[in-house]
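Q: what sequence does this backbone want?
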Protein backbone atom coordinates (compact mmCIF):
# COMPACT_ATOMS: atom_id res chain seq x y z
CA UNK A 1 0.00 0.00 0.00
CA UNK A 2 1.41 3.40 -0.93
CA UNK A 3 1.79 6.23 1.57
CA UNK A 4 -1.50 8.22 1.78
CA UNK A 5 0.48 11.50 1.91
CA UNK A 6 2.63 10.89 -1.15
CA UNK A 7 1.81 12.75 -4.37
CA UNK A 8 0.78 10.54 -7.21
CA UNK A 9 3.53 11.00 -9.85
CA UNK A 10 0.89 11.38 -12.61
CA UNK A 11 -0.97 14.03 -10.59
CA UNK A 12 2.29 15.98 -9.91
CA UNK A 13 2.98 16.11 -13.63
CA UNK A 14 -0.43 17.70 -14.20
CA UNK A 15 0.25 20.66 -11.79
CA UNK A 16 1.00 23.62 -14.07
CA UNK A 17 2.92 25.65 -11.51
CA UNK A 18 1.17 28.72 -12.89
CA UNK A 19 -1.74 30.88 -11.68
CA UNK A 20 -4.00 32.53 -14.22
CA UNK A 21 -4.98 36.13 -13.49
CA UNK A 22 -8.77 35.92 -13.12
CA UNK A 23 -10.87 37.91 -15.58
CA UNK A 24 -12.54 39.83 -12.76
CA UNK A 25 -9.28 41.21 -11.33
CA UNK A 26 -8.94 45.00 -11.74
CA UNK A 27 -5.92 45.89 -13.82
CA UNK A 28 -6.61 49.40 -15.12
CA UNK A 29 -5.70 52.15 -12.66
CA UNK A 30 -5.64 55.09 -15.03
CA UNK A 31 -8.66 56.64 -13.26
CA UNK A 32 -8.87 54.40 -10.19
CA UNK A 33 -7.05 54.59 -6.88
CA UNK A 34 -4.47 51.79 -6.69
CA UNK A 35 -2.77 50.11 -3.74
CA UNK A 36 0.30 52.32 -4.17
CA UNK A 37 -1.85 55.47 -4.39
CA UNK A 38 -3.73 54.64 -1.20
CA UNK A 39 -0.57 53.86 0.76
CA UNK A 40 1.44 56.75 -0.70
CA UNK A 41 4.09 54.21 -1.60
CA UNK A 42 5.84 56.52 -4.03
CA UNK A 43 6.75 58.72 -1.07
CA UNK A 44 7.41 55.93 1.44
CA UNK A 45 9.57 53.78 -0.85
CA UNK A 46 11.59 56.67 -2.24
CA UNK A 47 12.59 57.92 1.21
CA UNK A 48 15.70 55.73 1.60
CA UNK A 49 18.82 57.76 0.78
CA UNK A 50 22.06 56.14 1.92
CA UNK A 51 24.85 58.69 2.40
CA UNK A 52 27.65 56.19 1.76
CA UNK A 53 28.29 53.55 -0.88
CA UNK A 54 28.15 50.80 1.79
CA UNK A 55 25.73 47.94 1.10
CA UNK A 56 24.63 47.67 4.78
CA UNK A 57 23.53 51.28 5.14
CA UNK A 58 20.22 50.35 3.46
CA UNK A 59 19.46 47.88 6.28
CA UNK A 60 20.30 50.58 8.83
CA UNK A 61 17.92 53.07 7.19
CA UNK A 62 15.06 50.62 6.63
CA UNK A 63 15.16 49.25 10.18
CA UNK A 64 14.96 52.76 11.60
CA UNK A 65 12.17 53.83 9.26
CA UNK A 66 10.15 50.65 9.85
CA UNK A 67 10.62 51.07 13.63
CA UNK A 68 9.44 54.68 13.39
CA UNK A 69 6.24 53.52 11.67
CA UNK A 70 5.52 50.92 14.36
CA UNK A 71 6.34 53.51 17.05
CA UNK A 72 3.91 55.90 15.37
CA UNK A 73 1.19 53.25 15.53
CA UNK A 74 2.01 52.52 19.19
CA UNK A 75 1.57 56.25 19.96
CA UNK A 76 -1.76 56.29 18.12
CA UNK A 77 -3.01 53.28 20.12
CA UNK A 78 -1.74 54.56 23.47
CA UNK A 79 -3.51 57.89 22.93
CA UNK A 80 -6.70 55.90 22.37
CA UNK A 81 -6.11 53.74 25.47
CA UNK A 82 -5.65 56.85 27.63
CA UNK A 83 -8.91 58.30 26.35
CA UNK A 84 -10.73 54.96 26.81
CA UNK A 85 -9.65 54.69 30.46
CA UNK A 86 -10.55 58.32 31.07
CA UNK A 87 -14.06 57.52 29.78
CA UNK A 88 -14.31 54.32 31.83
CA UNK A 89 -14.33 52.21 28.65
CA UNK A 90 -12.07 49.42 29.87
CA UNK A 91 -13.08 46.94 27.13
CA UNK A 92 -11.71 49.11 24.34
CA UNK A 93 -8.67 50.07 26.42
CA UNK A 94 -7.79 46.37 26.84
CA UNK A 95 -8.12 45.82 23.11
CA UNK A 96 -5.70 48.59 22.15
CA UNK A 97 -3.26 47.87 24.99
CA UNK A 98 -3.04 44.26 23.77
CA UNK A 99 -2.24 45.64 20.32
CA UNK A 100 0.52 47.85 21.74
CA UNK A 101 2.05 44.79 23.36
CA UNK A 102 2.18 43.03 19.97
CA UNK A 103 3.68 46.13 18.31
CA UNK A 104 6.42 46.25 20.94
CA UNK A 105 7.06 42.55 20.33
CA UNK A 106 7.38 43.27 16.61
CA UNK A 107 9.85 46.10 17.35
CA UNK A 108 11.90 43.83 19.61
CA UNK A 109 12.06 41.14 16.90
CA UNK A 110 13.74 43.60 14.57
CA UNK A 111 16.93 43.63 16.69
CA UNK A 112 17.59 40.15 15.33
CA UNK A 113 17.86 41.59 11.81
CA UNK A 114 20.08 44.46 12.97
CA UNK A 115 22.46 42.13 14.79
CA UNK A 116 23.51 40.77 11.36
CA UNK A 117 25.30 44.15 11.00
CA UNK A 118 28.88 43.56 12.20
CA UNK A 119 30.94 46.25 14.01
CA UNK A 120 33.25 46.44 10.99
CA UNK A 121 30.33 46.94 8.56
CA UNK A 122 28.78 49.64 10.73
CA UNK A 123 32.04 51.57 11.17
CA UNK A 124 32.30 51.87 7.40
CA UNK A 125 29.38 54.33 7.34
CA UNK A 126 28.96 55.45 10.98
CA UNK A 127 30.74 58.76 10.41
CA UNK A 128 28.19 59.76 7.77
CA UNK A 129 25.49 59.86 10.50
CA UNK A 130 27.03 62.95 12.13
CA UNK A 131 25.25 63.69 15.42
CA UNK A 132 21.97 62.10 14.40
CA UNK A 133 20.74 59.44 16.83
CA UNK A 134 17.57 57.62 17.84
CA UNK A 135 17.78 59.76 20.97
CA UNK A 136 16.20 62.49 18.83
CA UNK A 137 13.24 60.25 17.82
CA UNK A 138 10.15 62.29 18.71
CA UNK A 139 7.88 59.31 18.06
CA UNK A 140 9.78 57.35 20.70
CA UNK A 141 9.74 60.25 23.16
CA UNK A 142 6.01 60.54 22.61
CA UNK A 143 5.36 56.92 23.60
CA UNK A 144 7.66 57.21 26.63
CA UNK A 145 5.69 60.29 27.76
CA UNK A 146 2.32 58.65 27.02
CA UNK A 147 3.29 55.67 29.15
CA UNK A 148 4.49 57.91 31.98
CA UNK A 149 8.27 58.35 31.73
CA UNK A 150 8.14 62.15 31.91
CA UNK A 151 11.33 64.18 31.59
CA UNK A 152 11.16 67.84 30.50
CA UNK A 153 14.93 67.87 29.73
CA UNK A 154 14.24 65.68 26.73
CA UNK A 155 12.31 68.44 24.94
CA UNK A 156 15.49 70.43 24.32
CA UNK A 157 16.61 68.42 21.27
CA UNK A 158 13.28 69.29 19.58
CA UNK A 159 13.49 73.07 19.98
CA UNK A 160 14.39 73.51 16.31
CA UNK A 161 11.06 71.93 15.28
CA UNK A 162 8.27 74.03 16.88
CA UNK A 163 5.34 71.75 15.96
CA UNK A 164 7.04 68.63 17.33
CA UNK A 165 8.20 70.56 20.39
CA UNK A 166 4.67 71.78 21.04
CA UNK A 167 3.13 68.32 20.62
CA UNK A 168 5.64 66.74 23.02
CA UNK A 169 5.19 69.59 25.50
CA UNK A 170 1.41 69.07 25.45
CA UNK A 171 1.79 65.32 26.08
CA UNK A 172 4.37 66.00 28.80
CA UNK A 173 1.80 68.09 30.68
CA UNK A 174 -1.14 65.69 30.25
CA UNK A 175 -1.97 62.65 32.39
CA UNK A 176 -0.12 59.55 31.16
CA UNK A 177 -1.58 56.06 30.82
CA UNK A 178 -0.54 55.36 34.41
CA UNK A 179 -1.96 58.67 35.69
CA UNK A 180 -5.31 57.72 34.11
CA UNK A 181 -5.13 54.27 35.73
CA UNK A 182 -4.55 55.94 39.12
CA UNK A 183 -7.52 58.27 38.54
CA UNK A 184 -9.55 55.13 37.80
CA UNK A 185 -8.46 53.62 41.13
CA UNK A 186 -9.79 56.73 42.85
CA UNK A 187 -13.06 56.74 40.90
CA UNK A 188 -13.62 53.10 41.97
CA UNK A 189 -13.56 54.29 45.58
CA UNK A 190 -10.00 53.31 46.45
CA UNK A 191 -8.17 55.86 48.63
CA UNK A 192 -5.40 57.51 46.62
CA UNK A 193 -3.62 60.61 47.97
CA UNK A 194 -4.67 63.97 46.51
CA UNK A 195 -0.99 64.68 45.89
CA UNK A 196 -1.14 61.90 43.26
CA UNK A 197 -4.47 62.88 41.72
CA UNK A 198 -3.52 66.56 41.42
CA UNK A 199 0.16 66.08 40.70
CA UNK A 200 2.12 68.13 38.16
CA UNK A 201 1.92 65.66 35.26
CA UNK A 202 5.06 67.05 33.62
CA UNK A 203 7.16 65.70 36.50
CA UNK A 204 8.54 62.13 36.74
CA UNK A 205 6.09 59.89 38.57
CA UNK A 206 7.29 58.99 42.09
CA UNK A 207 6.32 55.94 44.13
CA UNK A 208 3.38 56.57 46.48
CA UNK A 209 2.28 54.39 49.39
CA UNK A 210 -1.45 55.02 48.97
CA UNK A 211 -1.16 53.84 45.34
CA UNK A 212 0.67 50.68 46.43
CA UNK A 213 -2.04 49.96 49.01
CA UNK A 214 -4.80 50.59 46.47
CA UNK A 215 -3.27 48.15 43.95
CA UNK A 216 -2.77 45.62 46.75
CA UNK A 217 -6.48 45.89 47.54
CA UNK A 218 -7.27 45.31 43.86
CA UNK A 219 -5.04 42.20 43.65
CA UNK A 220 -6.33 40.79 46.94
CA UNK A 221 -9.95 41.31 45.83
CA UNK A 222 -9.51 40.60 42.14
CA UNK A 223 -13.09 39.35 41.62
CA UNK A 224 -14.53 42.56 43.06
CA UNK A 225 -12.17 44.87 41.12
CA UNK A 226 -11.84 42.70 38.05
CA UNK A 227 -11.50 45.54 35.48
CA UNK A 228 -8.80 47.26 37.52
CA UNK A 229 -7.04 43.93 38.08
CA UNK A 230 -7.08 43.17 34.37
CA UNK A 231 -5.93 46.70 33.56
CA UNK A 232 -2.99 46.34 35.96
CA UNK A 233 -1.91 43.06 34.37
CA UNK A 234 -2.16 44.60 30.89
CA UNK A 235 0.06 47.46 32.04
CA UNK A 236 2.57 44.94 33.38
CA UNK A 237 2.51 43.27 29.93
CA UNK A 238 3.36 46.61 28.31
CA UNK A 239 6.23 47.35 30.68
CA UNK A 240 7.56 43.83 30.21
CA UNK A 241 7.53 44.24 26.40
CA UNK A 242 8.97 47.75 26.58
CA UNK A 243 11.86 46.62 28.78
CA UNK A 244 12.62 43.83 26.34
CA UNK A 245 12.92 46.43 23.56
CA UNK A 246 15.17 48.62 25.75
CA UNK A 247 17.32 45.63 26.69
CA UNK A 248 17.71 44.33 23.14
CA UNK A 249 18.55 47.85 21.93
CA UNK A 250 21.23 48.24 24.61
CA UNK A 251 22.62 44.75 23.96
CA UNK A 252 22.65 45.12 20.16
CA UNK A 253 24.37 48.50 20.55
CA UNK A 254 26.96 46.88 22.84
CA UNK A 255 27.50 44.15 20.27
CA UNK A 256 28.00 46.67 17.46
CA UNK A 257 29.87 49.62 19.06
CA UNK A 258 31.08 48.25 22.42
CA UNK A 259 31.60 51.14 24.82
CA UNK A 260 32.11 53.85 22.21
CA UNK A 261 30.23 57.11 22.79
CA UNK A 262 26.94 57.52 20.90
CA UNK A 263 26.49 59.62 17.77
CA UNK A 264 24.00 61.64 19.84
CA UNK A 265 26.78 62.45 22.33
CA UNK A 266 25.88 60.21 25.28
CA UNK A 267 28.19 57.72 26.98
CA UNK A 268 26.46 55.06 24.83
CA UNK A 269 25.74 51.66 26.39
CA UNK A 270 26.07 52.90 30.00
CA UNK A 271 23.50 55.64 29.25
CA UNK A 272 21.14 53.07 27.70
CA UNK A 273 21.55 50.74 30.69
CA UNK A 274 20.24 53.47 33.02
CA UNK A 275 16.93 53.45 31.11
CA UNK A 276 16.41 49.85 32.23
CA UNK A 277 15.95 51.11 35.82
CA UNK A 278 13.01 53.32 34.83
CA UNK A 279 9.62 51.81 35.56
CA UNK A 280 6.40 53.24 34.10
CA UNK A 281 4.24 51.56 36.71
CA UNK A 282 6.46 51.11 39.81
CA UNK A 283 3.81 50.04 42.33
CA UNK A 284 2.57 47.26 40.02
CA UNK A 285 5.97 45.61 40.40
CA UNK A 286 6.42 46.47 44.10
CA UNK A 287 3.08 44.90 45.04
CA UNK A 288 4.34 41.49 43.96
CA UNK A 289 6.71 41.45 46.93
CA UNK A 290 3.91 42.46 49.31
CA UNK A 291 1.33 39.90 48.21
C1 LIG B 1 23.67 50.17 14.87
C2 LIG B 1 22.50 50.42 15.44
C3 LIG B 1 22.31 51.34 16.60
C4 LIG B 1 23.22 51.91 17.42
C5 LIG B 1 24.75 51.74 17.44
C6 LIG B 1 22.49 52.74 18.35
C7 LIG B 1 23.08 53.47 19.36
C8 LIG B 1 22.40 54.27 20.24
C9 LIG B 1 23.02 55.04 21.29
C10 LIG B 1 24.50 55.00 21.65
C11 LIG B 1 22.05 55.74 21.92
C12 LIG B 1 22.22 56.74 23.07
C13 LIG B 1 22.15 58.16 22.56
C14 LIG B 1 23.39 58.56 21.76
O1 LIG B 1 24.38 58.98 22.34
O2 LIG B 1 23.34 58.44 20.51
C15 LIG B 1 20.80 55.41 21.27
C16 LIG B 1 19.57 55.91 21.62
C17 LIG B 1 18.40 55.55 21.01
N1 LIG B 1 18.25 54.75 19.90
FE1 LIG B 1 19.68 53.65 19.04
N2 LIG B 1 21.15 52.63 18.10
C18 LIG B 1 21.00 51.80 17.02
C19 LIG B 1 19.80 51.45 16.42
C20 LIG B 1 18.57 51.94 16.76
C21 LIG B 1 17.33 51.60 16.11
C22 LIG B 1 17.14 50.60 14.97
C23 LIG B 1 16.36 52.32 16.71
C24 LIG B 1 14.91 52.24 16.34
C25 LIG B 1 14.13 53.29 16.28
C26 LIG B 1 16.98 53.11 17.75
C27 LIG B 1 16.32 53.98 18.59
C28 LIG B 1 16.92 54.66 19.62
C29 LIG B 1 16.18 55.45 20.58
C30 LIG B 1 14.67 55.63 20.62
C31 LIG B 1 17.11 55.98 21.47
C32 LIG B 1 16.80 56.81 22.72
C33 LIG B 1 16.71 55.85 23.91
C34 LIG B 1 16.52 56.51 25.26
O3 LIG B 1 16.23 57.70 25.33
O4 LIG B 1 16.62 55.78 26.25
N3 LIG B 1 18.31 52.84 17.76
N4 LIG B 1 21.05 54.52 20.25
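A:
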Amino acid sequence: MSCPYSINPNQSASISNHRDVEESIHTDFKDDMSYGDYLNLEKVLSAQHPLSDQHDEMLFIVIHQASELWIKLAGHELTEAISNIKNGDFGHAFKVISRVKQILGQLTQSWGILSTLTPVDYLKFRDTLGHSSGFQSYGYRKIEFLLGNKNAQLLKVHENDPSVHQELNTILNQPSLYDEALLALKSHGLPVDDSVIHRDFSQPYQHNDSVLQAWLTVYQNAEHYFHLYELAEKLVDIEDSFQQWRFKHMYTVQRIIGNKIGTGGSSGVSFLKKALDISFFPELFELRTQL
